[in-house]
Amino acid sequence: MKLLEGKVALITGSSSGIGQGIAKKFAEEGSRVVINYSRSAEGADVTLAMVQEAGSDGIIVQADVTRTEDIRKLIDAAYEKFGALDILVNNAGMEKKAPFTEVLEADYDRVMAVNLRGPFFLTQYFVQKLQTAKMPGRIINISSVHEDMAFPGFTSYCVSKGGMRMFMRNLAVELGPMNITINNIAPGAIQTPINKNLLQDQGKLDALLMNIPLKRLGTTEDIAELAAFLASDKAGYITGSTYVIDGGLMRNYHEQ
User: Fold this and answer.
1) Residue 214, CA distances (Å) to 75, 201, 220, 245 in order
2) For residue 41, what pLDDT is reported?
3) How confident is the model over 230-251, as pLDDT tens digits?
4) Beta 137-142 vs 180-187: how paired, if at all?
5) Cα(98)–Cα(114) distance, rounded to whole angstroms?
């Protein structure tokens, strides 16, 4: 039997990168998938093709996780199509680089809205629906090593991920009696479109690899494998923790 046979999962920001990799893996493990995108409809179509090629079923829902009406649309679409929603992966995220003294209020608000406010209220509605149905559930947040590790020039991003760490820890206690688990996955440097500029700058890439004991960037498959396990019944006694996937970066990082 496949790891997620019969389950339904919603993965935000699953039109590319880590979210797309998780959608593909979940489908391979038997889950039906709600694919979410904000801007890239083409990417969402690619993800759906991956899900179908894996022998599963999926739907695409365009939604901005910072908008309450869109949050409800996402969750409701899962119930309308599949009659249930067992797994929520809060993956959508963004970053905005700027020295602390030059951070714009609008940029700060947008980063916090996407990275923290969106997951907060999406999770709230997900849990409300589980409560009504008296069903267990799995919540996985794609956080970052920067929920714990400093990242000069990205203070708003670090603040949002630090907030996600306490969000997860607090809900592990509050939701545990409902048989709802919640955990974070904290990726380090992963080969995704968000790192396109880094991958094209050999000097910066080499400097980063010097800080990674395993001497390579991570892949979306590295993240997806753990996400599938945490979403499964095999992880039923695991909640309230962050799982770092960074090739040892956090233990060996030196700011240049």
Assistant:
1) 39, 20, 16, 11
2) 94
3) 999 999 999 999 999 999 999 9
4) parallel
5) 17
DSSP class of residue 187? E
The C-alpha atoms of residue 152 and residue 245 are separated, in whole angstroms, by 21
CA–CA separation, 256 vs 137, rounded Å?
42
CA dihedral 38, 44, 48, 50 (to 10 degrees): -130
Tokens of residue 109, six digits? 């608000």
Cα separation values, 152 from 87, 97, 145, Å = 34, 9, 13
User: Which domains are present in the chain?
Assistant: 8-193+219-251 (3.40.50.720)
Summary mean pLDDT of the chain: 95
**Average of per-residue pLDDT across 95-115:** 97
Residue 157 appears among annotated catalytic residues: yes
Hey, what's the torsion of the CAs at 42, 22, 19, 158, to 10 degrees? -170
Q: CA-to-CA distance for 85 and 161, rounded, in angstroms?
A: 25
What phi and psi, each to the nearest 5 degrees, are found at residue 35? Answer: -95, 125
Question: What Rg, from alpha-carbon coordinates, does the chain have?
Answer: 18
- Other residues' Cβ atoms within 10 Å of the Cβ of residue 14: 33
CB 75, CB 129: distance < 8 Å: yes
Q: Which two tokens stand for residue 58?
A: 């999926």
Residues 6+ apart with CB under 8 A from 65: 12, 13, 36, 38, 71, 74, 92, 114, 118, 119, 122
Q: Which of 157, 237, 243, 253 is catalytic?
A: 157
Query: In the numeric block, which tokens belong to residue 130?
Result: 């589980």
* Distance (Å, whole) CA 31 – CA 57: 8
- Can you tell me the distance from the alpha carbon of 197 to that of 98, in angstroms, rounded to the nearest whole number? 16
Q: Which two tokens stand for residue 230?
A: 């945490």
